Amino acid sequence: MSTIDDVTLAVIQNGLQQVCNEMDLAFQRAAFSPTISETMDRSDGIYHRDTGDLIAQGEWGMPIFVGCMQFSTQAALAYIQERGIEVRPGDVFMFNDPYMGGTHVMDVKFLRPFFYKGQIFAWFSNTGHWPDCGGMVPSGFSSTATEIEQEGLRLPPVKIFKEDEIDEEILSIVLSNVRVSEERIGDIKAQIGALTIGDRRLTELLDRYGADTVDSAMAEFRTRAAQLMRARIGTIPDGTYEGEAFVDSDGIDDRPLRIHVTMRKTGTELHFDLSQSSPPCAGPMNSVLATTKSAIYLAVKHIFPDVPINAGTFEPIHIADPDGTFLYAEYPRPVSGCAAEVSQRVCEAVFDALVKAVPDLCWAAPAGTVGNLSLGGRDPRRDRHYVMYNLSGGGYGGSLYGDGMSNGCSTTGNAATAPVEVLEQYYPILFEHYRLHERSGGPGKRRGGLGVNYRVRLRGGNAKLSFIMDHGRSGPLGAAGGADGAVNRIVLSYKDGRQYIPRHLSKDQGISMTEGDSVEVWTPGGGGYGNPLERDPASVTRDVFLEYYTIEDAAKDYGVVIDPESGTADLAGTAALRAQMMKERAASA
Amino acid sequence: MTSRVVGVDVGGTFTDLILIDEQTNSVWLEKVPSTPQNQAFGVISAIEKTKQDLGGIREIVHGTTVTTNALLERKIARCGLITTRGFRDTLELGRRTRPAPYGLIAQFTPLIPRNLRVEVDERMDAEGNVVVPLDEGQVAEAVERLRELGVEAIVVHFLHSYINPAHERRAAEIARGIWPTNYVTAGSDIISEFREFERGVTATVHAAVQPVLDRYLSRLQSELANKGYARDLLVMQGNGGLVSSRIAADDAVQTVMSGPASGVSAAAYYATAAGFGHLVTCDMGGTSCDIGVVKGGVPEITTEKQLEFGLPIHVPMVDVHTIGAGGGSIAYIDDGGMLQVGPESAGASPGPICYGRGGERVTLTDANLLLGRLDKDNLLSVDNPVSIDAVESAMTTQIGETLGLGPAESAAAVIRIGNNKMAGAIRMVTLSRGLDPRDYTLFAFGGAGPLHAVAIARELGIPRVLVPLRPGLINAFGCIVADVRHDYVNVINRRLEDTDIAEVHRVLRDQVKTARETVESENVEIDDLSFTHHAHMKFDGQTHVLRIKLDDVDVELAELRALFDEAYWNRFAVRLPEMRPVLVDLHTTVFGRRHSLPLETLLAREAADDIGDAVVGERSVWFEEGGWQATPIYRRERIPPETRFSGPAIVEQLDTTVIVEPGVDVEVDSFGNLVLVV
């Protein structure tokens, strides 16, 4: 039982949350990398001084980092302790080793001890996605890497700052190994600046409420968060539920990778087993353990968004280590696809299990790929090298409450895409269109949201195109009788009219492009929810009127007959067609 | 020239009016129910209630929520969009965000449906070069088609029009040629900045509310004219400045934050007139709390307001942050056993339990009542009196039993959590912008603001709370004292080292010239014109900008660099000598200062000679410090200027209740404002 009154507890909880929010904001606004400043691919948190357990994390941080940063902080603390490294005020450790509780090497973590009255009180850590950490392709997302070394520079925890002084030697090693290094110093300073701001604010909080009180409060938050999560889990019916999802291929071997989840719910606890998933793969679609576990935490947190985030939140969630699968990668397996793609597929598998357990709380699968497309080359107009890095959204799945949203962000992120007007200012490209991916929403009583379709043309010089996307082979799953969303597609069109479709459908790298060539992308739509034959004919008519899909689709997918002249539904014809379709479906089932 | 001015502000519940005769120092105050169907009825009825001859009124200044409500309720004009081929879905795609970090159930409806978005052949590149010439025939066809589909307004929105608006302007000209209407908007005429979604939405918001505002204002203006008012009605804009109703609709998007702007504008006036440089404003009503900042007498402005999810409005507006904390905010215990307050609100209906309108869940107002902070015998807005025992028992069942606290302690806990949330919101609008709350005075108004202000100030280390004389009429007062204001911006977007400083000077001078001409075209009496200039800057490679204040037009490059470095250090605790700054754009604001109104005018006539005579009673009130204690009740109207008294005390007035916690000294200034020293 806590000795602090409930009110002080709530005040301190808000205070810690605000410290983290302020760090998030300062880091984002000061960053140079657009992946941090525009797509908010960063996170800031406070961690327990001994255990590294998560105490509080910024609300605007990238969701996938929620679990990961606790693992990375714990791994770094163990590393520091094992080696007996002395820790002084103003020291900052920098590291990005994916096998140390990380994601991919481009997510660089800073870890700084927070001293209060001469003692370490807690740790601050933040992660930022650097646009490049070296490796065989610009941006680090190589679809054909077979070893981690090909993905970039790997750093164990090293002191980039020693008692507030930057270590120029370590800095020079880092800057000599990354592309467009002149901007990195700006990101490093933004990242450290955020921790400095956190330091000031947490000191004020402790001055106000006393270190002992805040300390006991932090322990209490953990208990409370666990209690709330247990209460939420308690609403799920006891039982065992299965879910699955597929990664198109690993980029090397053109075969799908299977993620299989068995979710067992007993009382107020959830147990996850992934052991029937595919074995480790040769290409970069392996996932490190921290990312796999975080993806499961994150999927559950999406279902129960009101549970605050700290180490206690995930206490009632038990995940067996998926030894021997591609979801538990060990050195030197390449892993660049795990944070953006495999993690989302893990979420989808969990959603697939959850939507069977709690169909009123969950949804059909969201598009689930970040649509990662990078273009690197020389801009002859400005006489400089560039690395463009473009992400896109896709449709969300339908749910009991309505159709899925179009062009939603990945499950594991929550970030804006760069505007066309910004991309065209920076790079020698021209977008020919950027629009809804028509006919992509999975049919359902509540249909999936629509994906995006864009086509971009190279206006000058030569460039290399690389991409790691997914759902090229199978669309996001429908749920409760709904159909799957449309698949992802990417096609390169050369100036002379030839076309190139990648062998792995959604992944390729180093494709040469010259002026006038263009690439077109269609991102997936969300899965449909519920039987499409039960969709209100008026909604179908409206969808057709807005050209989300065609009159023919309305008949084929929804059994709704629309008069092409008036654009209205023929209700008698619809009833007859639906009756016939239901009969056929029953027969084939 | 007559000496009578009227300020009239339409809020969600009440339409407030203040009429001041500057010669005789007479003041008329009116509060009538708002008429949401047509706000003009409430405005006219408030004016009629004063029984004053409209012919004798020099100015009527109006704060309105007509455009805000139209947008939030989507009762907007049917608009058509003409846009670059390949990009008709820009307004629907947004930037792939979702409303909340967790949870994937979300809905978004674009302001213009897909069938009313038409593409034409045309294309500029990012340098403003023509890639595809404008097909004028297609524009004409698009206009005809949209007209047939019954649109009332047309938005022309082309890619990269911020750098070269030629195609957009030509298309708008064609549209106006075919269809003589005022309701054709070229996107870059509304804002000239890059980011196609934000610019397109801002232009669309403008087009969608322009006919609504136009109809409303011309009807109101003509009704006022029929009643003898001869001059231009002045309208409060979201930037805290006024504009003539004749041209207000040309800048319709500027009125979207008109409501909160009048309050902040009043605060800015107090800041100067009563000698408070920096204020944090806290306007707390029944469901929400609006927080703004006045720095050096000038309201802080943002150009990145998001009215709701997917509805960014990028024109300069007072930077008001709204949180769901008001008298009606519901208190509850969550499943983790933590006490929470809001954002869910009982609103005006069913309302707090004590209003007797069927409310069953305890609210902040109920908590204030239980602690004696509100007078149980004199509650406003009560339908069916509810016994204090009933409120007490609800507090015990819903809160006390779980926390193991009695009803008073539970109520105190509810208030503390509510205060804590508001304090958190203030911290985000001050600290996150590099402002230290300790340099500020908390300006508390609205029905519930003064109930909570001292506790919030304590939480934040804000040293003083200013409760103005008429906290419930501040918005109407803000209308009267606001300046005429217009904002201008031009994009430069060049590295500082490549910037021609002569161009900077030319842009700023041109902005000053345009501003001067606009103010002169308005039929408003102005004492004095003043100009302020700002630059937005960033480092090359960054996407976010910092706002830098320029001392004058003749700024030098080295000075720009130095100002930027300093601002950067203050905000981010970082210095970046190795990076190259970029000058993004240049802003000019013109303020047409109107005659100043002495604050003394508002002084109450019935003030007692001695502070002791302002005490009208005593009741038992619960304070965190000392629990229940006998507390004197002061009548605000009876409190004489230039006196002082100390807490614990309660000050009651028609429109609010002020809580003076034990240990707080109250100084009454010469204008009758209460300054609570925390």
What would your notes on this structure say?
Chain A: One of its GO terms (cellular component) is cytosol. Chain A: Residues 5-532 form the Hydantoinase B/oxoprolinase domain. Chain A: Its EC number is 6.4.1.8. Chain A: GO terms for molecular function: 5-oxoprolinase (ATP-hydrolyzing) activity; ligase activity. The complex is a heterodimer of chains A (589) and B (678). Chain A is α+β, with helices and mostly antiparallel strands and 589 residues long. Chain A has three domains: 6-228, no CATH class; 363-535, no CATH class; 536-588, no CATH class. Chain A has twelve helices and 20 strands. Chain A has helices at 6-30, 34-37, 65-82, 168-175, 184-209, 211-233, 289-303, 338-357, 420-426, 537-545, 551-558, 571-588; strands spanning 42-48, 54-57, 92-95, 107-116, 119-129, 158-162, 165-166, 239-247, 257-266, 269-273, 317-319, 372-379, 384-390, 429-437, 451-458, 462-468, 489-493, 499-500, 507-514, 518-522. In chain A, the strands form four sheets. Chain A has a seven-stranded antiparallel beta sheet with strand order 2-1-5-4-3-6-7. In chain A, strands 14-15-20-17-18 form a five-stranded antiparallel beta sheet, with helices on one face. Chain A is globular, with a radius of gyration of 25 Å. The model of chain A has no long low-confidence stretch (mean pLDDT 93). Chain B folds into five domains: 4-71 and 213-258, ATPase, nucleotide binding domain (Nucleotidyltransferase, domain 5, 2-Layer Sandwich); 76-205, 3-Layer(aba) Sandwich (Rossmann fold); 264-462, 2-Layer Sandwich (Nucleotidyltransferase, domain 5); 486-593, no CATH class; 606-677, no CATH class. In chain B, the strands form nine sheets. In chain B, strands 13, 14, 15, 20, 23, 24, 31, 34 and 35 form a nine-stranded mixed beta sheet that branches. In chain B, a hairpin with a 5-residue loop joins strand 11 (233-236) and strand 12 (242-244). In chain B, helix 10 packs across helix 11 (388-403), helix 10 packs across helix 12 (407-430) and helix 12 (407-430) packs across helix 13 (449-460). Classes of the chains: A alpha+beta (589), B alpha+beta (678).
